[in-house]
Each structure stands twice: as structure tokens, then as C-alpha cells.
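Researcher: Next entry in the queue.
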Amino acid sequence: MWRETVGMEGSRRLAPPLRGVAGSLAPLGYGAAAFGAYFSMYAFRKPFAAATYDQVAGWHHALDYKSALLIAQVIGYALSKLIGIRVIAEFGRSGRGAAILALVAASWVALLLFALTPAPWNIGFLFLNGLPLGLIWGLVFSYVEGRRTSELIGAILCASFIVSSGVVKTAATLVLNAGIAPGWMPALTALPFAPLLLGCVLLLERMPPPDARDVAERRERAPMPTAARRAFLRAHGAALALLIAGYVLLTALRDFRDNFAAELWTALGAGGNAAVFSQSEIPVAVLALTGLAALMAVRDNRRAVLAMHAIILGGALLIAGSTAAFQLGLIGPLGWMILGGAGLYLAYTPYNAMLFDRMVAAVGQAANAGFLIYVADTSGYAGSVALLLYRSLGAGARDWLSFFTAACYVTAAAVALLTTLSALHFRRAAGRETA
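Model: Structure for this entry, 435 residues:
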């Protein structure tokens, strides 16, 4: 299964716009541009979750209105991921920046229509808001993958979806506190982030392609037509199934923690505090992603894949351990949300960047990481929808904290088991290749 790849000799000239900045600081600049692009996208996706929508005229259903909004958006987002399995796999280098800007603009039009349409008839516009946004990650990550510095750039990029959620909710809470109606809050919160999005996309477009040394170590990345996708899944489907099963649980837990952060903080005694969202998420990003960026030092791709299994396992154990410590009174609410969040993102983040990027580098088939990320994401968001439906329709009275605590334990145990099985599978496969 495993094979180290040998790439082309020689060197490529850097694109003229970046010829003068290529060096040790260049990956940080690339990472900052990728971070800013995806960070900005979150302002078009997540601000509505800062409101609780407790009382909505005309809504009298077992499923509460906010859950209906979340499910509508996540279904659109998940459908976008399904579409992205093909679109991202086959997308070339041309037109990526224009596609990002057009998709985000379409999502904002949906937010505007959400504001203009009375509740509860506006729920469908959250579906239309999520539908274009699911493609953004694959387009942004296509600039990043296949480089010797992909772990560093990828870690900076992944910090965006940890930090941005808290920052966007802080911004949205401030908009609400200014007296803006919840229906208009998402569209108005998103607008100030548009210039940042445009600037970062323009910087990404100036980013040079992977050079010859990148290709030699990380394999050249190419579009994957249908036949190539099927061949890859036939060869590695069993191993991927174990990993993706764990990712489904992690995605569901991560989305629940993110979408119902306002309710969780209220249960923890910090409701209405706009700063708490950022206070809890910025340390999470630092703790989770510093370790992941260090994987850049592991040059052997097979060892790097196994090291990421160990990080995922460690993250699962940290989720369970921090939850137990909170229940025993050893740490407070903020400490639990930071440590539990760090564990969650240590386990969750590798799937979005480093794990599949290194996997493509280690196996002997033409592929791109975007395809594998979107296979995982499609399954993951199906799990997120299922958890929302179960929580709203089948889990009894709305006790956010108890439900989240139980979900932490179940997810941690299952992910630990599945990751261990996957690691054993990859280790045996590597042994067969080197025998």
C-alpha cells in the first residue's frame, strides 16, 4: 500500500509577483492568506448561531426553530460536500479565486433574503446559504497541498475554523447587543469581512505552485477523473472507512459545540458574555495547531501518517479526560472548554489538511487530498445532521450541557477505538511494502 514517491529533478522559477519574498518567511505569508480567506468565509456561515431564537412567532413544532435553521444550513453544506467530491477532485488551478468570491457572494445573497423573509418562512434561505460555502475549503486547500511546508501552512489555515467561529460569534453578539434584529444580524455581521476575503484571495492567486523538491517529497497533485477516484477507493477503501467513521463522530461533536456555544455558555453561567467565545477558542487554536505544525519535521510520509493517528488518539483521550476533570471539579468551565476544545481539534483537524495530504504523498497512486477530504466531509456532515435531529426530536428535554457531556464521552471512546484499528491497519500495510 505504501510507497515513497520520487519526483522530478531541477527547479521551477517562482511566479514573478513572489520572486522577492520566497524564503523562510514565505510559508507564513501563504498561511496568513489562506487563514484570512477561510476566516472571512466563516463570517458568512456562522454568525446566525450566536442568537438563540427562543421565541419565533408561527413556529409550533417539536423541532425548535434554531435547530431547524442549523439543519437546513448543514444539509446545504453537506450537499455541497457531496458535489465537491467530484468538483474539487477535478478542479484545476485556473479560476479558483473567482470561484471562491462568487460562491461567498451567493451565500451573502441568501443571508439577505433570510433577513427580508419573515420567520419561519426564511428557513430555506439558510439551506441556500450553506450550499455554496461547502466548496470553499477544497478550493482554498488546493493552494496549500503538496508542499514540504504543507503542515505549517495547513496548521495556520486550520486555525481559521477554530478562531473564526469564536470571533464571528463575538462580532454577531455585539451586533445583537446594538439592537439589530436576529434576522438581519447574519447579513450585517458578514459585510465587514468582505474586504479581507477579497485581499486574501488575491494573495492566494499570486502564490507560486509547488516546486520540484515539493513534488519529489510530496508527489505531484493532479485532478482525479472518475476512474482514478474509483481506483483509489478500491485500493484503500477499508482503511479510509475506519478513519471516516471516527471523523463522522468528531464532526458531529464539533458542530454541536460550535452551533450551540451560546446555550452551553449560558448553562455554564456565562450567557450574554460576548468575549467568552474568543477567550475559549483562541487558546484552543494555539494548543491544537502548534503540535500539528511540528509534523513538518517528519520527512518520512509513512511515519507522518502514523504520527497523525497518534495525535488523533491523544485528542480523543484529552476530550474524555478534560470532561471527567470538569465533572470532578478539578477544572472550571473555561478550562474545560479550552482543554476539551483542544482535544477535539487535535483529533478533528488532521482530517482537514495534514492526514490526507501525507496519505496521498505516501501511496503509489495519482490523487489529490481535496478528493479525500470531501469524501470524509460528506460523511461527517451527515453525522452532524443526524446528531441535530436526535438531539431535537429524540433526546428529551433540552439540557444542552448534559447532552454535550455524554456526547464527549461517547465520541472519545469510539474515536480512540477506530483510530487504533486504523493505525494497526496502516502499520501492517507499511510492513508488507518494506518486507
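Model: The chain is about 70% helix and 0% strand.
Researcher: Noted, moving on.
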